Amino acid sequence: MSKKIYLDYAATTPLDKRVLKAMMSYLKEKFGNAMSFHLFGKETEKAVEKARAQIADLLDADPEEIFFTSGATESNNWALRGLTKKGDHIITSAIEHHSLKETAEALQKEGREVTFLKPEENGVLALSKIQSAVRKNTKLISIMFANNEVGTIQPIQKTGEWLKKENKNKKNKIYLHTDAAQALGYLNCSVKKLGVDLMSISAHKIYGPKGIGGLYIKRGAPIKNLLFGGEQEQGKRPGTHNVAGIVGFGEATRILIKERTKNAKKIKKLRDSLIKKVLKEIPHSSLNGSIKRRLPNNANFSFKNVEGEGIVLGLSLKGIAVSTGSACTSGSLEPSHVLLAMGKGPLEAHGSLRISLGKYTTKKEIDVFIKELKKTIERLRKISPEL
Ligand SMILES: *Cc1c(COP(=O)(O)O)cnc(C)c1O
After folding, report:
1. C-alpha of residue 111 to centroid of ligand 1, in Å
2. Full-prediction pTM beyond 0.85?
């Protein structure tokens, strides 16, 4: 097998070498508990606070508004559960990441009202739909910034601007949360510009380590704890700090601030040529989701009469990693809830393939991928009963 090719950056990204380097001493000699009063603790506390400031810088927030969590999954759970109570109404979309979707479903069973809004056919949610879903008891609107399967970018800033006006004549403020795990690597995530009260982020989608993430909580947002038992993170998120992870998250953020625009441009060029070639060279192929309102690293196709899983397995045998949709459902053989919500039939939803590029992707890799994809699909179609 020739060199392995990774085209699944939306599932997770490799650790940047500079990030690993920044983390190393915190995995070795600098092992102190960041809450300890002695010199070992002071050293790691300083590192944690430096990372917090770096992340605050990226989000255009104050360091006191950044809370470290185990990742965007926990942040999504915390935002939804922590900000609402029984009887409250939550507006969300039908294309959210599983960590948000299933939290919303669990809360619905526990007595919150939840509206799951369907996007337009192109995978983008209409602001007017959000606006007309508001009820008297609406407490929280939670819409992802960019989708993890089709890469579509949602109108968060417009929602934020509208809410700001809406909340002026309201006794009970409506809060806005966004899951920015996919968007962070590519889009401006200034919480001020977007007008959000809460934002979920994760390190391993931006070349940082796994198991560390954060929740931006705007000062004053009335959020209850998910976890209890310690004074860490202003008493709001107890548990001994994952110091090395936090340091890695900070360094990944520092690099992102410097290199995001340049990388996004390079990746978009490769992605655009990939889309063009696939649609031209593979018969009965179609692109899912808007081409314009889309992350620069995402491509998602449906291929008539071929199952996505078959393609993923076939390409994997050739050393190429792509995915059907989200990493969280692979193996379950469930059709994509995102494509279903976009109005695709179960067959199309089953036949989808997500290719997500990253900063280490090369033109050569894209060329090899297209060649192997063509072969794999031809082979699978030969054994398909439909053709
Ligand atoms: C990856 C991802 C998550 C989960 O993040 P973890 O840090 O792995 O828990 C949540 N939402 C979106 C949109 C994601 O892409």
Report:
1. 25
2. yes
Q: Whose CA is nearest to atom 14 of ligand 1?
A: 181
- Taking the CA of residue 10 as reference, the ligand 1 atom at the shortest distance is 15
Which atom of ligand 1 sits closest to the CA of residue 75? Answer: 9
Identify the residues whose C-beta falls under 6 Å from ligand 1. Answer: 71-73, 97, 99, 144, 148, 179, 181-182, 202, 205, 213
- DSSP assignment of 169-205, as one string? T-SSPPEEEEE-TTTTTTS---HHHHT-SEEEEESTT
CATH number of 17-255: 3.40.640.10
pLDDT, one tens digit per residue, over 197-239 is 999 999 999 999 999 999 999 999 999 999 999 999 999 999 9
pLDDT tens digits along 33-69: 999 999 999 999 999 999 999 999 999 999 999 999 9
Report how far ligand 1's centroid is from the alpha carbon of 181 (Å): 5
CB atoms within 10 A of CB 74: 21
**Which part of the chain is CATH 3.40.640.10?**
17-255
CA distance 332 to 324: 11
Mutate to test the pocket of ligand 1, among 12, 145, 182 (most ligand atoms within 8 A of CB): 182
Instruction: Name the residues annotated as catalytic.
Output: 328
CA angle 54, 178, 114 (to 5 degrees): 155
Fold designation for 5-13+260-382:
Aspartate Aminotransferase, domain 1 (3.90.1150)
In the chain, CATH 3.90.1150.10 covers 5-13+260-382
